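Quick note —
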Amino acid sequence: MKREILDGNTAVAKASYKLSEISFIYPITPSSTMAEVCDEMANAGEKNIFGSTMSITEMQSEGGASGALHGASLAGSVATTFTSSQGLLLMLPNMYKIAGEMLPVVINVASRSLATHALNIFCDHSDVMSARQTGFAMLSSASPQEAYDFAVASFLTSIKTRVPFLHFFDGFRTSHEINVVNTFEDEELKKIYPFEKLQQFKQNGISPNNPHQYGTSESEDIFFQGRERANEIYNTLPDVLYETFKSIETISGRQHKCFEYYGSKTAKYVLVVMGSATNTIKQFIDFAKNKDYGVLKVNLYR
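Predicted structure written out below.
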């Protein structure tokens, strides 16, 4: 492992670069740094764990980025992108298709308020809440170190299950927090990466020599069967994610779970939170005069 001083965006970018082959990007505050860092790494000729340099293309909008992401994944490429706020909303139509076709895509989101009566670039979760029914698994991180680990977990679990992941963390609160982050060497990532699942995914990729038909019209009886078949895979996802967390623990010593409780075992008041607020609440619990408080941290939201 390497011990580095990084902000949350850069930590996620480093994980994403090492674990994906292609990215289609469009800048939006406060997520732009992630794409910029990946672009810098590609221009420097840095290799991912597959031995190639990430291909990065800036599109005309977030809608174009998500459409290209969809197409690249259909062709068998491990694809990712980065966005925030209204940018995520423009990706929603393609996210339904990506999840419906069970494509292992990862979208990293620095959460930001949606513009309503005015523009607000600071953090809330109104953007990611809009993506709840797309079919993407949703994983929330609370610190730069956790953002790095959860980005790694998102890529690994997505390849294993074919369920796409939306990994999100608080814009500015986490995306721009500078802290010590322990990152993995390439050889360490290779030890826990499911290369056999990657090979299966690539074999199913469409090409002129391996054509498939997608996007047909189905009557309700057949359509329903397809949705029910997908539910079987979604039901296994928490267990697969937990196994991925355990594999990360074997090389890092850092423990993660889908839900984490902190505080008194006999707490009268328990706060349920996601994101950077967790660390503030933990400090309050540590210094509170009475021990009536606890916090349940939600990592796997969906």
